[in-house]
């Protein structure tokens, strides 16, 4: 048996790298191919998708939109990404199912924990969309929550940088990359790995977090296998 993991993909994972918005079929196929490769090795993979490439609820709320309405719109954006990823996985010969926390039976199953586990045990990739189904919660928190619910061994956080730094590497070229770091140090330093709720939930459920660069070919499969890529938060 392989590992059971929860992979968190931000909305940026679906976009053309040059544009950072929309759904780019080439990018989706590349990501799907790496996931299919890892699944073919016997690993059980659940995926939580973000929607920032289509709509960012928090930034829209800052522009005057009601936060709850903005978050619900963001949830719908995650469903679009989930459907795109499912199509990419199926095209790569990898069976996949989409489950949503908001009910849209015409296009996806509702989230049911035992059904999700059943899909994983049958070798299907499960894609969780719609966040937790509640406003004011991020998809990072969703990843921690779903990982705990399905009994995953780890949360894999795909990002655009190499891992966790002691400062923003874009603004501080001399920022130091951690190979590993504790949950408490992440919280105390205010490092923006995942939101505090997600970090705390992983800490309480003894779920290690692997933060890695999705832009590097092969990193998804390496992270799923448990290879030491990026930063380990534990």
Characteristic key phrases:
Carbamate kinase; 8 helices; 17% strand; nine-stranded mixed sheet; alpha/beta; 9 strands; globular; 234 residues
Structure, explained:
The chain has helices spanning 25-40, 57-62, 67-91, 113-121, 139-150, 183-189, 196-204, 219-225, and strands spanning 4-9, 44-49, 96-100, 109-110, 125-129, 154-159, 180-181, 209-213, 231-233. It is α/β, with parallel strands linked by helices and 234 residues long. The protein has a single domain (4-233), classed as Acetylglutamate kinase-like (Carbamate kinase). Strands 4-3-5-2-1-6-8-9-7 form a nine-stranded mixed β-sheet, sandwiched between helices. Helix 1 (25-40) runs parallel beside helix 8 (219-225), helix 5 (139-150) runs parallel beside helix 7 (196-204) and helix 6 (183-189) runs antiparallel to helix 7 (196-204). The longest helix is centred in the middle third of the chain and has 25 residues, at 67-91. It starts with a strand and ends with a strand.
